[in-house]
Amino acid sequence: MQRSSKNSIRTTQNTASKALPQCLPSPHALWEIIAAQSTPLRLDRLLVLLGLGRCCRHKLEEILSSLLAQGRLLRLRGGMWLAAERLPQITGRFTALRDGGGFVTPSRTQIGNAGHFHPLGGRIHISPGQTGAAWHQDVVRVALTPGVGHGCSQEGSIVKVLERGLREIPAIADQRRDHMLFCRPADSRLPIRFRVELAQTAPQPGTLLRLEPLKPLAPDLWTARILAEYGREDDVIVQEELVKCNHEVPRDFPNDVLDEVTRLPRALLPEDFQHREDLRTLGLVTIDDADARDLDDAIHVQERRGGGWLLRVAIADVSHYVRPRGAGHAGALDREALNRGNSWYFPHSVEPMLPQALCHGLCSLDSGEDRLAVLVEIPFSATGVPDKPRFALAVVRCAARLSYDDVKACLLDKSPTAIEHLRQHNPRGDEILTMLTQALALSAKLRTLRRQRGSLDFDLPETSCRLDAKGRVIWLGVRERNDAHRLIEECMIAVNEAVARHLSAADLPFLYRVHPKPDTDRLKSLHDALVALGLNHVHQAHHTRSSKEIMHTALAAAHGTPREDIINRLCLRAMPQARYQPANEGHYGLASQAYCHFTSPIRRYADLLTHRALKASLGMNCGSFPAGQQLLRIADILSRRERATMNCEREMDRRLGCLALLPCVGKHFCGLISGIMPFGIFVALSEMPVEGMIRVEDLGRDRYDFDARSMRLAGMRTGVTWSIGQRLEVVLVDVDLGRLEIRLRPLKLPKSLRDTTFLRTRREKGRAMPPGRRQVRQGRH
Known about the structure:
Layout: H1 2-19, H2 27-35, H3 43-50, H4 57-69, E1 73-76, E2 80-83, E3 89-96, E4 102-106, E5 110-111, E6 117-118, E7 124-126, E8 139-148, E9 154-163, E10 169-177, E11 180-185, E12 193-197, E13 207-218, E14 221-232, H5 236-246, H6 255-262, E15 277-279, E16 285-288, E17 297-303, E18 309-316, H7 332-340, E19 344-346, E20 349-351, H8 356-362, E21 371-380, E22 390-396, E23 400-403, H9 404-412, H10 416-425, H11 429-453, E24 463-467, E25 473-478, H12 483-506, E26 512-514, H13 520-532, H14 536-540, H15 547-558, H16 564-573, E27 579-581, H17 605-617, H18 628-661, E28 668-677, E29 680-685, E30 691-695, E31 704-707, E32 712-715, E33 721-723, E34 727-736, E35 741-746, H19 751-755, H20 762-765, E36 773-776
Parallel strand pairs: 7-9, 12-14, 15-22, 16-23
Antiparallel strand pairs: 1-2, 3-4, 3-8, 4-7, 5-6, 8-9, 10-11, 10-13, 11-12, 13-14, 17-18, 18-21, 19-20, 21-22, 24-25, 26-27, 28-29, 28-34, 29-30, 31-32, 31-36, 32-33, 34-35
Helix pairs in contact: 5-18, 11-12, 12-17, 13-16, 15-16
């Protein structure tokens, strides 16, 4: 009876509450009220200001959320509401992260109405929940909010999407309902799903599709139509298509480019031989990967009387065919080559900078074919010191096309079978073998001199894979590098330096390949990481030797050890990325005073520009070439395209690793800890060039102290440490192809971590952390 009475009282109170006359403002009126305030408002303060009861809280939140979605209001940390126009705003491109947040890279400098200034180039951190309706790569307007994001980044909130960056989106067919197909983006950074109306046939679940978004049905659901269907998600070719879509890799050539190609000759014309040296009898050879198709360099080395060598390098004369606009040339080929920047290589395909008629035909230095080339001739002393180079236009006919494996088998392995095969299949076989022996001797001298002047050599592994008949990865490994690769590298470095010195002396505008010296902070982090790996002699030499000497010491100590790859990558990460620019600052990694790219004009636009500058220095007309601000803009374009290409390669390698490990869930692997972060540790597997992560919650029942300086996690109760370079056995727990995540766990934990139930004491709560350290709670990122 008593309970019934209480229920009756509660019901009466609720009814009375609903009956209270409440006057909710319209969205616009609510915005005007908030915009008129000088400070942000909490929801409770807003209810008081509007004279509303707490029963209106939910309805008011709905109106606020709609204004937030329109970008008219912002919700700051702590639940504070503010009109977006009261904060400085800038535009930029949004880069999404897989945690739901991201960064915006400003497109220009702006000063907001609050007088705040944001410098051009500084990224703005966008927290999860502050991205609005933005997708990865969208052009957005951002309000700069109080607070700091990652590191020293400015915090911001996206208020409006100005332009969709992705007009075509790769997606995976998920499930079918009647005549509707629901798809999820292949890129987990996109927080949306798609609904496609089906015709007669429907793609099978797991099929990769290319979709065109049409219109929104809800914030996280859009309609779309299918543009292309590629196949199973676990097919390497399908994954290549996915990476190309994700990075908007250029594919088909425009019609005006193809039209210009059709007007080019199919073979050399009689007038092409004018003013060119005929070197068709010279025993030039190309040395490339066995599956290479664009052969843009050939070499010939001969011994000089009195000692030393004469190096001749013939580079495909692409600039003869690809001309800038003007003087009767349409310039479509040149425009498209600049737009692409370089060729884009994938495990089983390539998106070339030039159409196939050029890169695989007219410009490729195929053996037995007459081709136009630019000759660089450099005399070297017996110690490898270069003398004055000579440059000329030439017609060449390569005597042989060799692979790195061919050269290794003949020169390094001294294989009788390989030597006999070369003699039988090439009438100049003995001459070629003699020439290669001289080339190997010269390259050894050049490499020694480079090391003596301080050049750094990083033998980083290049991923290689084998597939089964269905396109699935059955083996993942690395391409072997040997002295055959280094032979060609040394010759090309010598040519690039010779051309850069010549053009610099001629005072002509061209693009240097510049590699700046690493800054102090990066070198300090590298030093700490090397000491953490146990290279104590690096620590002892830190104050008495240069950074380059320390790197040399570390690379030499790691050579041939299991930690070689980790130390190579640590040293590489410590250095800034090389770039193109008209001003010479030298090349730190190669220890070169002047360096440029000249030897690969089929696959790099920067090399094509250098060819035009060289021809101009020789008094030849190959059309106009850029200078001043135009050259600066081109340098920026080419550097950005190069970075985009590298990002493609990294993502493709990651996808290959995921594909190779998909059938291996539950299996055991050996590896080395290659990185330490507060949320977990990264492990490089020994069996294949793949890196996975062990989350901190999988490291046993303890709280960890993260020391960024010594690159380790230390258990605060158990004392168990996880350090970079540490060897351990792991089990593969999960492979998420959508998120490109490979999750590992230690195969066996120390007994103290298995048995300990960790309770935080008051003393530990108040414990002050040393500089550079963070407490990491078990189970929290």
